[in-house]
Write a structure and sequence with these properties.
mainly alpha; Protein Binding, DinI Protein, Chain A; two-stranded parallel sheet; elongated
Length: about 180
Amino acid sequence: MNSSSSVSVLRLASAGAALLMTVAAGPLAAQAPAQGARFGWVNSQLIIRQVPGYAAAESTLNNEIAEFREEVQRMQTGLDSMIRAFDQQQIALSPTSRQAKQREIQETQQRLEQRYSELQTQAAERERELVAPLEERVKGVIEGLRAERNLLFIFDVGAPGNNIVAADRSLDLTAVVVQRLQGQ
């Protein structure tokens, strides 16, 4: 996990959901042409980075991930030392001792891989723990804005896999969402 992607961004609409909403919006929008646009869009990647508390959450997560990396690096260094020592000694070892050392190296490698997997899971859980409250605040503001403006849909152009390739900038609600979040 690199630091630029250490904190996930809000995922308000998947590609499938965006496609479904686009198809569903066609007949609904045709029923109310006099009311103007009944949808808007936001860029969640821009919003989440400006939510009060995001920088602290990102910093906390980055510090914890750095500790995880240090632990894995220490374990890797120990394994590398064990392998170098084995390489230097293997000629002098009996076949039984050589097999025992190889098993020890394999077990150490497995422990390292297991711990790495545990730390990845722990980092992902911690990321969700830190980001979920921020995402809930963002969702609340977006839902409030949707209801207030009587919008049918608000698309997220910043979501991974979205299919929106062009959008009318006058329908961009990102700045309004950020302003409301910063005012909370």
